[in-house]
Write a structure and sequence with these properties.
alpha+beta, Phosphoribosyl-aminoimidazole Synthetase, Chain A, domain 2, 2 domains, seven-stranded mixed β-sheet, four-stranded mixed β-sheet, globular, PurM-like_N, Hydrogenase expression/formation protein HypE, PurM-like_C_sf, PurM-like_C_dom
């Protein structure tokens, strides 16, 4: 049993204390038969289909925020990258870089949250590693996950399938995660009831994956909706035109953005999906999303234009009837939000 109250450098030295940390904190909560803490590698079984792999790192500060923590966020972020690629997530690997001095009780809460999110998403954590960083070098804890999933052969999703006239949709209000994390830092003397949208998007992607006319999906994390729009414009070689009045933003999120000068279109969401679909398919996708609790705020927010001009590939139609260019993000308005 772990008798220490805080992580020390000795918990990363390969000896008894490290073994106790792995077995009593990580393995106990993850509780998967395939998680062999004495093995360097483990075999996994994969069903037929295309194997899809993703890797993501998480450095959010603070470690807990309204609506989640770094543990659940790490699972959701990795699972969501597989989901928007049209895959069914199956396995995760976990690397935990723990700062010396982190409370063992806090680490337990984070690992328990991670394990709960994995079970809820139907994925298994089958391998992992821990390292302990000297005090002042780790931000409490950093997590890096690799996700493995399988999708049907010849999955027809991709930027190359997008055509002029296609509709752009989002599954719900944007920017909530970025503002929730910012308020949790208490840097501006502000408080509010904004809750992160961090969640698995598997219900959203599964609901529309079989619908004809779906071209592309992505989750608008770092850089937000505007960054996804630029990725679409660059990858598809076509302009993206967004309708400001149609983009869902919660009133509390917009109010904080107005006070601090943030643009919610550039702030992260961690439980939303941006989709591009043929015009004839847009209504069916919208209906499928709105039938789910996760998609009740879904909206059609724009369309794909013709060839994208190099100086203005993403255009925002404003509420007052004008238009302005949405530039590509350069500075980081809210660092370490995921």
């Amino acid at each position: 049993m772990i008798e220490d109250t805080h992580v020390s450098l000795a918990h990363g030295n390969g000896g008894r204390l490290m073994r106790a940390l792995i077995e009593e904190v990580f393995a106990r909560h993850l509780a998967d038969p395939a998680l062999d803490t004495g093995a360097d590698a483990v075999p996994v079984a994969l069903p037929a289909g295309e194997i899809v792999v993703t890797t993501d790192g998480f450095t959010v500060q603070p470690l807990s925020f309204p609506g989640g923590d770094i543990g659940a966020l790490a699972v959701h972020g990795t699972v969501n990258d597989l989901a928007v690629a049209g895959a069914r997530p199956l396995y995760l690997t976990l690397a935990a870089l723990i700062e010396e001095g982190l409370e063992i009780a806090r680490l337990e809460r984070i690992v328990a949250s991670l394990a709960g999110a994995a079970r809820a998403a139907g994925v298994r954590v089958v391998a992992g590693d821990t390292k302990v960083l000297p005090r002042g070098q780790g931000g409490g804890i950093y997590l890096a996950l690799t996700g493995i999933g399988v999708r049907p052969p010849g999955c027809g999703l991709g930027l190359g399938r997008i055509e002029t006239g296609d509709a752009v949709l989002v599954s719900g209000p944007v920017g909530d995660h970025g503002i929730a994390v910012m308020l949790a830092r208490e840097e501006f003397g502000l408080s509010g009831d904004v809750v992160s949208d961090a969640a698995s998007v598997l219900p959203l992607t599964a609901a529309i994956a079989v619908l004809p006319g779906l071209r592309f999906m992505r989750d608008p994390t770092r850089g937000g909706l505007a960054t996804v729009a630029h990725e679409i414009a660059r990858g598809a070689g076509r302009a993206v035109e967004l309708d400001e009045a149609a983009i869902p933003v919660r009133g509390t999120t917009r109010a904080v953005c107005d006070m601090l000068g943030y643009d919610p279109l550039y702030l992260a969401s961690e439980g939303r999906v941006v989709a591009v679909a043929a015009p004839a398919a847009a209504a069916a996708i919208l209906a499928a999303w709105r039938a789910l609790p996760e998609g009740e705020g879904a909206a059609i927010i724009g369309a794909i234009g013709a060839a994208a001009p190099a100086d203005a590939p993403v255009l925002l139609r404003t509420r007052i009837g004008g238009a302005r260019t949405l530039p590509e993000l350069e500075s980081d308005p809210l660092p370490r939000i995921c």
